[in-house]
């Protein structure tokens, strides 16, 4: 009974035609995807060894041999979609041109960039998931027939890229998994392929399996760039990239915004939106009953497979569909103009495990939002299907005014950590041969009867700046966003009068909002205009004025203080809530009494909730792998002391926000410290500058202030405090500095006469040895996660290296240098992992989970050095490891070989804790 799935002739012809654009062998592609062969005997799936048949995961499970799930052609899949009356769905781009699409994004000319995760779950063991074979492709509909037929591999050979953000003409931002840097890729010769790669920002990544890393870098209406997971936002300025901390968004895959610029973040494992009540920059607030009753119940069509990671408890009988949301991906607040008007402002997201696209109606009452599934009463969803391979992972309002759905069309939609041998899900994967369905993917367009898509082709990059302004009035939010981004990036202030008039007088409310934020992005929003907007008759404009004027207040324009206080008693509940958030954000003087004033004359639930939680902040919720690292009490105290020193002394020259104080003619009084690579480099740079001062040009740039004075008369604690604040509180993300580090640097530089010159200082600072120049070996080697690379060199990446076995005395990790060097310092981070065998209770909310972690740092170890790798000399100090960041001084010991060796065993520990390290850095001097 041999069965084959093959592409039709039309698809094969299309593959050959597209090969010249995308750069793959279409015949080989067809061959790879057409060999879903089943032998004469279907595979028998049995209960894994040791599994309890009475366990809820296994009770009543059907493990009889089944016919394998077969992919359908796009035309066949389209027939199985179930949509409300009047809606239609059609493919705009499919395999073999693209493979395993995970997200799309449009640039200012309407070209569609596709994030192709070509290594996602190619096997149930996630083999080769981190191979550099993924790509970001770019597609155009040149004949304007609605199909994207012309494409190129814009950036190829990527390691599981995290996002794609168009960032100007022929330019995108992206980063790879297990990496720390975001890069800007540019096509400089117009051939559709990026040929220039530049560092955009660093300290942006994190480790973990590919589902738990940051994703979806997103340009917000407020001109800041946000991402999931990361509890900060970044922004490009003339003096570099700056960064501000935000609340923890608890999201995994999806960010969007509404017409008022509020960001909506999409959860992953929770199966529901993760943050949406208030703008994320104001922090986290605990809001009860955010989801309407029954919201967590999906109503997918019968798919029969019952392939749910949670086991039989998650299966609706007898149709085999999901009975409780367990995964979600991709989101969009629909802001287009070619679907029914009642869809505007509705929130859409995908639940790929349930094979549904959900439509949500946000209902705001007394300032608090509750989410309702529009089709819950009908026990249905906006879009569902009986095709078990439909995997909706992204939703997008398109330039043509319709809604696009990114469908990975894939067999397995759960990362390898949860599909290991012996699990219920692995049994289902093998039963239906889901691991054989790989390398496919479709992009769909949702339309409505009687509403033709907009066939106007965007060409924003070629338009004059003044002509772009009119697009801020466009009925499709995509056009407004794209025009605003272009206007801000061009920095052409000739349109400021035009924008000011629009912001103050336009009858189009959304145009006014975009004009306000375009002014803010051009650094052209002035206090008199902001004050007029703060007194506008429309409460939506007053809210935008509060948010946009915060940058003025933070830059020391205190003339807005009276306006902020007046807004705290605004008759409109939403304005009053925003005023409270703004007061907290800008640290309005006498904050507690001002918040109490706002609460005193309002009975609105939102005012009460916000006020109480500003006055008494709630304890941080359990964020699992998605939260921001919590500072210790000592670190918090250090930052607070450092902030006081900085604001009293350093801000005069370096600016209140660390961006440098303007000195006229485009010059600064002193260097910007916010987002500074120097401030985030080895601590000795900053310590020595504070101890001894600096004069002269820095990388060819001079400053009006002349020189940085020596402050060596200050104590080690004083210097450690202020530098820890600078390295953590001014758009920087670097390690804290201890008084002991300052003391060592003070002793080492005691002979320094006068201030440093930049070139002199740069040569004296410890430098990082590049991993590619080092040869590393280890006594034991494993990846820190399923599907990772197995190499000791992984210790230098976010992926990390592990012994894989429980810590045992004598285990070692060794680094060979190209030549002997004076070793200054070694740093590494040790991860935590979820305790083996733990799983959440069915129906338990993510916030309520208490996740048991095991800590994989080395408990005790020593260092030895050698000239030849044979004769070793131990450095006479045993070191204790710590959870998280480890920094060990090597004090200039000369060596060609460095060996780290465990001096303690954990073989009696029931958790079998291995030794793991990542982000390893070795410094020489």
Automatic annotation (TrEMBL):
Residue ranges of domain F5/8 type C in the record: 762-885
PROSITE patterns linked: CYTC (PS51007), FA58C_3 (PS50022)
UniProt entry tagged with the keyword Lipid metabolism: no
One annotated GO molecular function: heme binding
Keyword Transport: no
Entry keyword set: Heme, Iron, Metal-binding
Pfam hit, one: Cytochrom_C
Top-level taxon in the UniProt lineage: Bacteria
Domain Cytochrome c: from-to ranges: 637-730
Alphabetized InterPro entries for the sequence: 6-blade_b-propeller_TolB-like, ARM-like, ARM-type_fold, Cyt_c-like_dom, Cyt_c-like_dom_sf, DUF7133, FA58C, Galactose-bd-like_sf
Protein name (database record): C-type cytochrome
Native source organism of the sequence: Spirosoma foliorum
């Amino acid at each position: 009974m041999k069965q084959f799935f093959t592409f039709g002739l039309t698809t094969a012809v299309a593959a050959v035609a597209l090969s010249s654009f995308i750069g793959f062998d279409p015949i080989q592609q067809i061959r790879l995807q057409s060999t879903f062969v089943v032998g004469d005997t279907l595979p028998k799936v049995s209960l894994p060894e040791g599994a309890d048949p009475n366990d809820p995961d296994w009770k009543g499970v059907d493990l009889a041999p089944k016919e394998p799930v077969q992919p359908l052609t796009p035309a066949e899949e389209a027939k199985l979609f179930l949509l409300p009356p009047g809606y239609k769905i059609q493919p705009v781009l499919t395999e073999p041109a693209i493979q395993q699409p995970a997200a799309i994004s449009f640039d200012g000319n309407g070209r569609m960039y596709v994030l192709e995760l070509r290594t996602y779950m190619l096997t149930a063991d996630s083999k080769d998931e981190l191979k550099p074979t993924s790509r970001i492709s770019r597609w155009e509909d040149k004949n304007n027939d609605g199909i994207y037929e012309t494409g190129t591999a814009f950036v190829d050979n990527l390691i599981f890229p995290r996002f794609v953000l168009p960032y100007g003409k022929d330019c995108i931002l992206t980063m790879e998994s297990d990496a720390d840097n975001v890069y800007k890729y540019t096509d400089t010769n117009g051939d559709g392929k990026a040929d220039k790669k530049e560092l955009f920002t660093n300290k942006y990544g994190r480790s973990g399996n590919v589902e738990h890393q940051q994703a979806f870098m997103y340009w917000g209406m407020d001109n800041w760039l946000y991402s999931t997971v990361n509890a900060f936002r970044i922004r490009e300025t003339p003096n570099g990239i700056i960064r501000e901390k935000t609340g923890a968004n608890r999201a995994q895959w999806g960010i969007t915004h509404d017409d008022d610029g509020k960001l909506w973040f999409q959860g992953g494992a929770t199966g529901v939106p993760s943050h949406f009540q208030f703008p994320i920059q104001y922090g986290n607030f605990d809001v009860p009953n955010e989801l309407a009753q029954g919201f967590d119940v999906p109503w997918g069509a019968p798919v029969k497979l019952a392939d749910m990671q949670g086991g039989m408890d998650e299966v609706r009988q007898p149709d085999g569909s999901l009975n409780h949301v367990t995964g979600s991906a991709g989101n969009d607040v629909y802001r287009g103009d070619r679907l029914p008007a009642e869809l505007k402002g509705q929130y859409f997201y995908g639940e790929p495990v349930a094979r549904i696209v959900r439509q949500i109606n946000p209902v705001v009452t007394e300032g608090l939002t509750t989410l309702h599934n529009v089709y819950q009463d009908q026990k249905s969803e906006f879009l569902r299907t009986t095709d078990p391979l439909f995997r909706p992972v992204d939703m997008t309002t398109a330039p043509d005014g319709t809604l696009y759905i990114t469908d990975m069309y894939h067999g397995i939609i759960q990362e390898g950590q949860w599909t290991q041998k012996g699990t219920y899900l692995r049994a289902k994967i093998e039963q239906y041969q889901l691991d054989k369905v790989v390398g496919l993917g479709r992009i769909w367009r949702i339309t409505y009867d009687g509403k033709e898509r907009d066939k106007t082709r965007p060409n924003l990059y070629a338009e004059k700046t003044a002509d772009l302004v009119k697009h801020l009035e466009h009925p499709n939010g995509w056009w407004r966003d794209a025009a605003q981004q272009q206007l801000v990036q061009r920095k052409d202030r000739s349109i400021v009068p035009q924008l000011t008039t629009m912001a103050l007088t336009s009858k189009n409310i959304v145009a006014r909002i975009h004009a306000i934020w375009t002014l803010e992005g051009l650094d052209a929003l002035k206090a008199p205009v902001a004050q007029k907007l703060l007194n506008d008759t429309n409460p939506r404009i007053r809210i935008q004025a509060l948010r946009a004027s915060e940058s003025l207040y933070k830059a020391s324009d205190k003339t807005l203080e009276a306006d902020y206080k007046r807004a705290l008693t605004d008759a409109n509940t939403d304005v009053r809530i925003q005023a409270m958030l703004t007061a907290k954000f800008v640290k309005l003087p006498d904050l507690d009494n001002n918040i109490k004033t706002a609460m005193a004359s309002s009975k609105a639930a939102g005012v009460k909730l916000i006020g109480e939680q500003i006055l008494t902040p709630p304890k941080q919720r359990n964020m699992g792998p998605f939260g921001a690292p919590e500072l210790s009490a000592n670190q918090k105290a250090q930052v607070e002391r450092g902030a006081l020193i900085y604001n009293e002394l350093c801000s005069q020259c370096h600016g209140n926000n660390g961006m440098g104080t303007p000195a006229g003619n485009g010059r600064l009084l002193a260097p910007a410290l916010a987002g500074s690579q120097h401030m985030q480099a080895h601590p000795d740079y900053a310590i020595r500058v504070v101890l001894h001062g600096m004069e002269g040009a820095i990388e060819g740039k001079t400053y009006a202030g002349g020189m940085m004075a020596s402050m060596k008369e200050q104590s080690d604690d004083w210097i450690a405090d202020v530098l820890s604040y600078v390295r953590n509180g001014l758009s920087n993300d670097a390690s804290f500095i201890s008084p002991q580090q300052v003391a060592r640097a003070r002793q080492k530089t005691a002979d320094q006469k006068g201030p440093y010159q930049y070139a002199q200082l740069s040569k004296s600072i410890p430098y990082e040895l590049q991993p590619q120049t080092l040869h590393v070996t280890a006594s034991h080697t494993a990846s820190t996660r399923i599907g990772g690379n197995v190499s000791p060199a992984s210790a230098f990446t976010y992926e990390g290296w592990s012994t894989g076995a429980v810590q045992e005395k004598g285990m070692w990790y060794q680094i060979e240098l190209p030549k002997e060097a004076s070793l200054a310092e070694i740093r590494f981070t040790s991860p935590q992992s979820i305790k083996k065998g733990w799983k959440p209770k069915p129906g338990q909310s993510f916030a309520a989970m208490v996740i048991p972690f095991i800590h994989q740092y080395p408990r005790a170890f020593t260092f030895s050095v050698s000239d030849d790798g044979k004769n070793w000399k131990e450095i006479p100090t045993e070191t204790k490891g710590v959870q998280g960041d480890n920094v060990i001084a090597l004090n200039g010991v000369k060596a060609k070989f460095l060996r780290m060796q465990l001096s303690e065993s954990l073989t009696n520990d029931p958790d079998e804790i291995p030794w793991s390290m990542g982000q390893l850095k070795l410094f020489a001097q």
